[in-house]
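INFO  loader      accepted 1 record
INFO  loader      residues=241
INFO  predictor   begin
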Amino acid sequence: MRAEHLPALRIAPSILSADFSRLGEEVERVIASGADVVHLDIMDNHYVPNLTFGPMVCKAIRRRTAAPFDVHLMVKPVDALIPIFADAGADIISFHPEASEHIDRSLALIREKGCRAGLVLNPATPLHVLDHVMSRLDLILLMSVNPGFGGQAFIPETLNKARAVRARIDAHVAAGGQPIWLEIDGGVKLDNIAEIAAAGIDTFVAGSAIFGAPDEDGYYRRVVGALRRELDSTQAHRRAA
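INFO  predictor   done
INFO  writer      dumping tokens
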């Protein structure tokens, strides 16, 4: 499904928490269960203290689904890997400003490869990095944990950051700018996703919340469905307000 045809509030399972011994099947199952986007966390053991997988895995699982691939590059330097992951099937590529010598150039490179471009803000990354690149962004990803490992607890201060970034995006769009997704990654669970959505987030990366147990007796469908109901409730409250 193309990114522009997705719902207004999107669920993006992170396959970092999936069963790597049957990754293609996991991707197929979670999309069939109602998720919208496949989130790929790429770590290099340099920018973050962990090592995950590379473009060959991305290319291999690309054949298993038409869902958009949201590739989050936690690597440094970043520019050399952008075209490689674009060729491996990425639809969205985001990176950390600390990992690029020239943020504008890296964003332009992503778009030149036909992908949507995103910038990732760590919990302590200031918002001024957005000041001169809003016109090049299709996505802003807020880390609600420190990057490097799955299963961490949500950092509550991220909600204030989300409200501030949402205000920036709304002002940008009101001035004639392009739409920008506002995504969050880290500690998203059934018991906090509604509060996160109320802060202005529209795209939700969830790892252990979805892949925390084997997909037996429709487990993924039940979890994704429960998350979706929380988001639908948030949308209903917005419309009523």
